[in-house]
Amino acid sequence: MWIHQRVPVRVLCRLRFSTSTRRHAPKQIAMEEFACDVIRNFSIIAHIDHGKSTLADRLLELTGTIKKKEIGKNEQVLDKLKVERERGITGACLSALLLPILTGIVKAQTASMVHSVNGRRHILNLIDTPGHVDFSWEVSRSLAACQGALLLVDASQGVQAQSISVFHIAQERGLKIIPVLNKIDLPAAQPERIAAQMQSTFGTDPADIIRISAKTGQGVDEVLQAIIDRIPPPTGSTEDPLKAFLFDSFYDRYRGVISLVAVQNGVLKKGDRIASYHTRKKYEVTEVGIMHPEETPATSLYPGQVGYIACNMKESSEAHIGDTLHRSGSPVDPMPGFKPAKAMVYAGIFPVESNDFPKLEESIKRLALTDRSVTVQRESSTALGQGCRLGFLGTLHMDVFRQRLEDEHDQNLIITAPTVPYKVVYKDREVFVSNPTEFPDALEVSSKVKEIQEPVVRASIIVPEEYFGDMMDLCFSHRGQDLEHRYLDAGTTGTSSSSRIILNCILPLSEIVTDFFDQLKSRSSGFASFDYEEAGYRPSDLVKMVFLLNSKPVDALALVIHRSKEDEIGRLWVKKLVKVIPRQQFEVPIQAAVGKKIIARETLKAYRADVTGGLYGGHVERKMKQLELQKEGKRRMKRMGTVEMPQEAFFEIMSTNKRS
Ligand SMILES: Nc1nc2c(ncn2[C@@H]2O[C@H](COP(=O)(O)OP(=O)(O)OP(=O)(O)O)[C@@H](O)[C@H]2O)c(=O)[nH]1
Hints:
This protein is an alpha+beta fold. Helix content is 30%, strand content 30%. Helix 9 packs across helix 10. The chain is globular and about 110 Å long. Guanosine-5'-triphosphate (GTP) binds at residues 8-10, 46, 48-54, 78, 82, 131, 182-183, 185-186, 213-215. Guanosine-5'-triphosphate (GTP) binds next to helix 1, helix 2 and helix 3.
């Protein structure tokens, strides 16, 4: 049931694998020559696969920041990833072997380039933004460190859902947007048509669009010039008190958390005592530098500059994206709009062997050190024993974390169905519930609960018009509301020969964390693109479904579902359960229930032990007696017996959910 999405390289990188990439200690770079007027801070924003990494590589190459040979090496790795992705393996499934190599690429993504124009050295800071909706909050924060953005659109694919969402974020932040059409070398490229599409979607003047091939390098020098000419320089003063904006971080196993910062005012150097505005924690700066593209120590960082600091932060969760750092004892006004990352998808993680819990917990803790966005709480279940309840930014984040636990920490685990945080409104208070076992039961709902609300998202789907009906069905079957649509353009794109439609609607987040994405891709033959943003909470008729084995509920299987789906889900799950639970000596009813109402039932047949096997010849009476005794025994066992659901059966049911 989980979403299996292709994981863009940079999303993996966003989780910052913990190997230090410093190959040698370069000498310190002096940064004072770079005043604000020769600094440009920008991002590349694009839909997945439209060529962000390739363009970043070309820019680094053109400015001499990396050698062509190194690019070749990176490309090899990227190509390898793509091969795996094309085979249908998510990027998250990449072998642990590749991860340290990936780290090397990551560092090239937020990078400072030195470029001379008319004999004056400029510093161009390319600031990385994550490429996936799970991290949209971080996109917005990374863009807060920029004054401009390159909006990259694939000339054969045209504008996609994510192009629109990132464009809006950049526009809201007041960034100067440079429109760029990429992949014009492709035979399927339609630069004129896509330029018109950009004009109608973004209000872009076609004359401003730069046409390039990031692959061959054609037109990339024009992009470099436009960065200098069109993007305004940052502002700031060395005289004002220190104020630095924390926009990203990664974990280094030797130095702890390394934070990427944009200095707004003042000067930041080694030995400074600084404090976080939001956590009030104090640190001493042990190193400052720029990403060039690897960490290159600098004497100091000045206003407008972007670089890294190490300051003995021990855990990634201390580095709050969007935080403001200031000199300890001299607070400043913080950067506006800070809010801590919020978990939107929760799941319980348990070891397959209960005895392995200490090992699992240790691995989770170690991974969480490197991943600032995951939340961890202990959880215990009667069925699965001791485990942890983890909160993730989204299902992709969850998949990556799970995969890392399995690959890097060799953990054999059971992960429960993902849930979202529901809001239970009582007469006098509101409670957020992210664990189905804590969801109020039917009696409580009818007597004490005023309302139940669920998180919803505003979704956009872009799709060729022949798939429009299927997409409408998909949205309705996932409880979509407020559907509206419009034509994006008319004519032909890429391999599809129809007009494209953009469809917007409100969808419950819980519907997206199940099979929505897979269905979207299969029902549109892969042509639909999809993006969403949080849209608050809405009242909903939700119920808790429990599964009973021999009339006893199995806590780890509880689900929160919409009442309209109780039949469908109840039947589906009992059918699955009957297949994975081993037969007992007695018949076992497997039931799905909502409150006192049984929604669905299957019966697990007893296996028949041959109790008369040792009796030969004419012992008919004894045989009958043995069978009677066995029957009675079974009746008693059934009355008293609890059916153990073995961990393997959980594992099986959870993985069939993943596949369904
Ligand atoms: N023909 C052609 N292919 C390109 C061009 N730019 C990028 N590509 C290819 O398009 C694919 C995607 O490029 P990436 O640079 O990885 O795209 P991205 O936007 O960084 O992708 P994610 O990391 O998944 O977000 C790769 O196979 C590139 O080689 C181009 O100008 N022309």
